[in-house]
Design a protein that fits this description.
The protein has 236 residues and is α/β, with parallel strands linked by helices. It is built from eight helices and ten strands. The longest helix has 18 residues. The structure holds adenosine-5'-triphosphate (ATP).
Length: 236
Amino acid sequence: MLTATGLTVHYGSREVLHGVDVTVASGELLAVLGANGSGKSTMLRAAAGLTPAEGTVTIDGRRRGPLDIALVFQRIHLVGRRSVLDNVCTGALGRLPLHRSLTPALFPRSVREEAMACLERVGLADRAHDRASGLSGGQQQRVAIARALCQRAPVVLADEPVSALDPAAAEQVLELLAELAHTERLAVLAVLHQPDLARRYADRIVGLHDGAVVLDGDPAQPVDSLYPHALLETSS
Ligand SMILES: Nc1ncnc2c1ncn2[C@@H]1O[C@H](COP(=O)(O)OP(=O)(O)OP(=O)(O)O)[C@@H](O)[C@H]1O
């Protein structure tokens, strides 16, 4: 379980996140919604330790460790010329001995087997030996999720993981994130710009407005107040 308490972020003298509390339970997919500039990415980055913030973040009651959180981004950071399997193996880099992590071309067999199992979980084992750049955007995002699985992190934070995907691929990726949350008991937080997808796939929705949580609850709750009217019409 991820528990963030009192997350406060300043950019220069401007406070953009105002003491946000957010929890994500193991086995839960939490969707974070909010208009542009409401602070969603800042909250995610603060929770991950990528942006300096006041407040506390614990994972299952412990202080957040460097391998506790796996990240999935809108822009899929795969090494295109390397194989799909090698990309998934890099999820394990943080727990390999230093001499191994300096020569990632030579991943141990145990890591390659685990990476293959992660690829099976996302339905892409048959593409393991293809170049990553040869896969579609939706498939590449599923590889990024397999890499997160290979990290064995209990928490996955995904910043707009489906914004660059077509509607069918977006559905597939969200369905996968929900399934992994439920079956692998991961705590998954996904920043989304699509209220309808959040309603369908998330177990809970948190809404941000001006750097503060203004909604927290059932996916069926009305989220229109989070958006300027015109934005809602284009995003759902
Ligand atoms: N590196 C930065 N330096 C200064 N201000 C920033 C920086 N990053 C974000 N901000 C400001 O912080 C506020 C929150 O931005 P953030 O990117 O977290 O919002 P968001 O909800 O993720 O937006 P979007 O939906 O457009 O991605 C905005 O006012 C933004 O201009």
